[in-house]
Amino acid sequence: MAMANHLSQVSRSFSASTVALDKCYELRTYAVLPGAFPEFVSLTKEMMHLRIAHSKLIGYWLADLGALNQAVHIWEYDNFTHRKKVRANLASDQNWLDNYLSKMTKMLAYQDNSTMKQMPWCSIESQPRKEAGIYELKEMIMKPVGPHVWGDVMQRSVLTQAAAHDKRNYGKLMGAWMGDFGKSSAFYQLWNFESLDHRIAQKAEIESLPEVRETGAAVEKFMTEHVTSKALLPMPFSPLQ
Description:
The structure is a single chain. This protein has an 8-stranded antiparallel beta barrel, surrounded by 4 helices. With 241 residues, it is an alpha+beta fold. It is built from 7 helices and 8 strands, in the order H-E-H-E-E-H-H-E-E-H-E-E-H-H-E.
């Protein structure tokens, strides 16, 4: 009963009233050539303010575990029309093109992007549990039946975990999205932890809880075998620290 009450409180804290469902979120991943990584980091620190002037940055991280030489960033747009306008403005921003983009693209092995829709039951948090901690981006590829089928069990599973973490002052759920363009069957979770060691210990404890095991099992039948996790460290200019 106590956990049910706490879950209800967490659910209300992630209420639809705080969620803008018409927003478009873009997840971009840059794989940097290993020899160019230090230069990429230095240039990005120096010049990213030129990009942030055009649209809202949610967070910008460097992968620590789960990927090598990667930059991962999430951008928010009012809608796809807004994104198109921003992209057009960037294409005509000579300062951005000359001082960053033309130099940065030569350092990349590849780049990838996907658009995401925010889950209606989860707001995007602006304050992490621990600044200068670590972030975890989890990607789960669901069976292509759609969130109208798996959405309710996913909500219960994720919010049960969030409630257990919140009760113990452990990790913090920072956002949840479903894939749109790109990995259209993907489900994403962004978490914040004090450290990697804290995350390992806390994850083991949380996943041993009966209510977490129960709600997690309900999700498994809708999952494929593709589940990935990346440990991320925020860049100095990232709004999420």
